[in-house]
From TrEMBL:
Domain of life, source organism: Bacteria
Entry keyword annotation includes Transcription regulation: yes
Matching SMART domains: HTH_ASNC
Organism: Thiothrix lacustris
CDD domains: HTH_ARSR (cd00090)
Occurrences of domain HTH asnC-type (ranges): 4-65
Keywords: DNA-binding, Transcription, Transcription regulation
Name of the molecule in the record: Lrp/AsnC family transcriptional regulator
Length: 157
């Protein structure tokens, strides 16, 4: 396991809040020259601490105003059934997140985003419930996002 020092932690905190920052600005912010800063970023990427960079888009401005959480129950609890479901669900672009869960009557929780209720109905009835093994579905609609962040709580460093 790679040991992270204060510079590494500072790089991680800065990049997860602004992945678009230039190497020069990042180096200035953490107190290193650009070359060692870039070398550290590359090492963090290669070690798997940084898994990618993305632009976060505004769903409502793009016409995707309905977000729902869907709990999925499976008819059988076998690796084959779960593998089939997971292989199919990753190909549905409206599914933002799919979690295998415990402590509920459901096996999976999906976070989906669609244009409107008609689009939700099409997604649910024509695609999700047609996946082999899906035996129960319970949907909840998001009224408001109270906390909406992607940054991990990095207390160390």
């Amino acid at each position: 396991m790679m040991q992270l020092d204060r510079y590494d932690w500072h790089i991680l905190r800065t990049l997860q809040n602004n992945g678009n920052i230039s190497n020069q600005d990042l180096a200035d912010r953490i107190g290193l020259s650009p070359s060692p800063c870039l070398r550290r970023v590359r090492i963090l990427e290669e070690a798997g601490f940084i898994t990618g960079y993305r632009a976060l888009l505004d769903a409502k401005k793009l016409g995707l105003s309905l977000m729902a959480l869907i709990h999925i129950s499976m008819d059988q609890h076998t690796p084959e059934r779960f593998n089939t479901f997971e292989a199919r669900i990753v190909d549905i672009p409206e599914v933002l997140e799919c979690l295998l869960i415990t402590g509920q009557s459901a096996d999976y929780q999906l976070k989906v985003v669609v244009k409107d209720m008609d689009a939700f109905q099409e997604l649910l009835l024509n695609r999700i419930t047609r996946i082999q093994g899906v035996s129960g579905v319970h949907s909840s609609f998001v009224l408001r996002r109270v906390v909406d962040k992607t940054a991990l709580p990095l207390a160390n460093g």
